[in-house]
């Protein structure tokens, strides 16, 4: 047998050399972010430790690790680093404000002394830690430091936020070091001449940890699993040493020596475990040499034994005042329901304070797993907090369910003010979920209930919520009146949050008739809310500016406003408004002819599985529009599904564009009755309440179908020009606004061939196959000979409009890989791969994977590079 200790440092010299070169550059002020990735057991920690141990004494090393807890501790690795740094940094970390921690970490990295800051196992990181990383990682340039992050790419889904954090780092500042398995030669060098190399390599696939554990098991055959190798080594130890292995196996990552000793571990037993190579002692802690070994040994224990061990660990940790996340973890593992409820509730509130909304939802859910452990008032408060966290994290289903539970409890308790607040919150959630009637019912009940109890903060909230619902259906005069009533009452009772919410509503309503005045009011509200740390108010104000600009075709200004709204939502970790604003960006890109970019945004949002309610309908409409214009097989089904989602919202901002899309689909099919049916219900509402762009959008399709003789009142300029017969003026107007598809159709409205041919050229550039087909028929009817046939599919920038990720998936489909194999190869979830495959089939206009592979080979798509973001077609 070869070496049975740690694997020799083989085939990692290049990676180590890269790290050494990076620290040399950092000394000169060229700071970098380094990402070391690879499967479990591949040697990430070994590489980083070898690197840091070889640094000279003038380089500071800060090291924090994320732990495999049931719910991660907010800022866990930063707390560990705070213990090494102390001073002001430690004080900032204790404040739980991730933005301030990010600034403080950068300040540490900016000190004169070179520094390597390691954040290990970031696949287990909490939201607040990822916020800090996102801030610091984008600001390493010019610093004498290296920010080094490790993670397991076999435990990181394609939609994990760490991938977004890494992707946000400027490419010149980012070094990726993916670690590959060892070669056969390296495995042979470790194993020695006597080993069955082929069998060893077949079992371990070159994973260094599996190689050394298999050799260390000392059996005559190669054990088939990690569990077998670990148990074979443990079987040679004394009972006392195996007791130590048991305790350490139920403590994630590492166990303090005092904890193990308090649990009955003797110094001799600990020493025996260390000498065996299974455990490592370092800095007054004890850990398995690898996490895979810890999990394997833990899983070898019976369920009752694991519960018993966790109960004892929990009691020891309680007596020593340990972190809440550890107490929650062991309380759950010990099935101690009282302790789980108690600690999870406190930990959940702390997670919410640090904007770790995902962790807050998980913790509140655990605290309420046994609701009878809480009295009704505390239970109602916990459900309210769970609803707030889930809503902010864009988990609308759990948010509504928790709010309904809280409302039922508040009714039982007979507290009208809190019943009213829950009705208001429920109304807003129903609106986000696309259920307007339910939103109005809850809102009306809240006003009626609270008006019966005199002026109050809650009544001001109810008026503000009612004003918002009026604004959203564009009853703007009434919305402003009710909103000003809410503002007056909010000032009277001293409620800043409700005042800012009402001001946002009033500003949004004013943007219809006074864009500059409404915009300025919303901007002021956003800044005031930011100063008051009212995250939702900040996001709502800036989102409404961006959304209204897009809705009114102010696309030049919308570019800047969307980016600002997205930056704010991401900085404040408000996932719902981030997703909502990405939907607005997709609509803007669609309007500007950036169809590939728009579809890429939609694909990303669908892959995240975070769409619900109004946003789901909005982004599906974007996808349906592109599919319709490109002549996709599923276009009409997508159009009708978008209409099904939009209709319950009962607001022009959702129903009007989808009705217009249905009218466009009917027009493309030459179905005049279909155009009438698509616009019959919504057009009169737009005439009464809509703004000029909404009126014009529907009127234009009716005019093109012969259903309209004159220009309606309150119609936007480009539509008015087109309906008046001024196709040239309409085309110029659309060009000035920046909407090439509408410009092309305006040219095609001309009665003579030359402008129609120009419009056809624009449609071909956009890849608008369906309307181009209609226009070619018109040109033939005008007697034009030699009508251009249009581009062949194989000559477009990317014939199917595939995103980069979809092109990669198609290549693997062509290679015969299954969805599961693709998921493993690309480090995606099977559900995400399934979504990508569905999108590929739709874009290639085929019905099966086999047909997709054949189409890829025929058209050369398996290796084609997709068109860049923003390219037409």
UniProtKB/TrEMBL annotation:
GO terms for MF: adenylate cyclase activity; ATP binding; DNA binding
SUPFAM superfamilies according to UniProt: C-terminal effector domain of the bipartite response regulators, P-loop containing nucleoside triphosphate hydrolases, TPR-like
One of the GO biological process terms: regulation of DNA-templated transcription
Keywords for this protein: ATP-binding, Nucleotide-binding
Gene3D superfamilies linked: P-loop containing nucleotide triphosphate hydrolases, Tetratricopeptide repeat domain, Winged helix-like DNA-binding domain superfamily/Winged helix DNA-binding domain
Limits of the HTH luxR-type domain: 795-860
Highest rank taxon of the organism: Bacteria
Stored Pfam families: AAA_16, GerE
Protein name: Regulatory protein, luxR family
Organism: Thermomonospora echinospora
